[in-house]
Model the fold of this input.
Amino acid sequence: MKKDQLQGKITVAITGASGAPYALKLIQALVTAKQQVYLMVSSAARVVLATESDIQFPSKPEKASEFFIQLTNAEPGQIEVFGKDQWFSPVASGSAAPKKMVVCPCSTGSLASIALGTSDNLIERAADVVLKERGKLVIVPRETPYNAIHLEHMLKLTQLGAVIMPASPGFYHSPESIDDLVDFMVARILDHLEVEQMLVPRWGYQK
Done:
């Protein structure tokens, strides 16, 4: 499959909150849905991925891209990984960045930086670009409990047009495994990205 045969482009950022299974399933689902994935992984997220999934990937973006392509059985070039200081990457500019981005999982530190518009690294800049271009930014925080600072940042981002989607899976689809709970959250994310999904039956069509 050539790049011009892909259905769309979506930016995915993984930050240092617990929830590696959500991120990995999301990337796989986007690949299956024939989406071009621009991927960024924070330093803290690398630690979480290694802890929660035993996944360790090369530090160089080119090698990391190859790793995730093989991991997800993606087409050549379908996943592109960018480092935190790659300011000339497409996601850093409104003229080239995808109009859709997901931060999954989103740490409260990343939540704060995005809400404040600091843009100190590529993840923060990419999120800022999507907001300023009036695109779709989905934030998936994974923390409990929330304090007032977290909630204030979520409110600010909601007011700016972002979608705050805490990693809080439902149970009405009768989950039988952790994978079923992960699928629930990923399905909801895909719905908001307007990407077709068959992971979880919709309300009224449960088994």
Residues 26 and 186 are 6 Å apart (CA to CA). The two ends are 35 Å apart (CA to CA). Residues 178-192 form the longest helix (15 residues). The chain has a mean pLDDT of 94.
